[in-house]
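Summary of Year 1 activities. Much of the first year was spent building the evaluation harness for sequence design. The harness presents a backbone, in tokenized form, and records the residue chosen at every position. We chose the following record to illustrate the format because it has been used consistently in internal testing since the harness was completed.
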């Protein structure tokens, strides 16, 4: 049985099993500790019976500074963000990613977020399909978002900005159809 629980500082040294996937972003230890300190209810791990961390999700809540509301539709309101989601290869296809993200969704609902968002490489079809099954849709394509390109087809790779409405967004105001066709540059994502 795998347990879903909040991450503790001592877990940071046990993330290696989950971080072996080449599509998983790896960060400095300080980055992980900062997440635990700033968003303690949004760093969630999956622990197996042997005490190994076999998956995790890191998230946060954020928005553009309020003075940028003049941007209209480009203003990013209070929302949850999936910074990283990974499950060790031998623990995939067991529903752990769904359980981890559901727990993060609950934490963001408690913070009264409008929607959840995440960025995923356009070449990572497995992840894109998984997120779609969880209710996410492509909001826009961010051209050249990733500075590296593991496919070897160029210097950078595009990302899909995927979103899922939470209960506060009853009319799906922050979701759009055919987002794959809506292209922006990375510098147009964040304004604050």
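For this record, the design step produced the sequence shown next.
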């Amino acid at each position: 049985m795998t347990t879903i629980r909040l991450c503790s500082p001592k877990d940071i040294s046990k993330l290696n099993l989950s971080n072996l996937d080449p599509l998983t972003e790896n960060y400095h230890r300080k980055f992980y500790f900062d997440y635990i300190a700033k968003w303690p209810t949004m760093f969630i791990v999956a622990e197996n019976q042997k005490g190994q961390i076999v998956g995790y999700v890191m998230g946060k809540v954020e928005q553009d500074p309020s003075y940028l509301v003049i941007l209209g539709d480009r203003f990013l309101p209070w929302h949850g963000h999936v910074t990283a989601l990974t499950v060790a290869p031998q623990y995939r296809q067991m529903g752990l990613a769904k359980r981890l993200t559901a727990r993060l969704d609950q934490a963001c609902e408690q913070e009264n977020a409008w929607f959840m968002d995440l960025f995923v490489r356009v070449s990572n079809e497995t992840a894109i399909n998984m997120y779609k099954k969880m209710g996410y849709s492509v909001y826009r394509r961010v051209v050249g978002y990733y500075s590296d390109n593991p496919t070897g087809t160029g210097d950078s790779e595009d990302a899909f900005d995927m979103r899922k409405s939470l209960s506060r967004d009853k009319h799906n105001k922050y979701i759009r159809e055919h987002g794959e066709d809506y292209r922006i540059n990375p510098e147009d994502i964040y304004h604050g």
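The longest helix spans residues 96-110. Quantitative recovery figures across the full test set are reported in Table 2.
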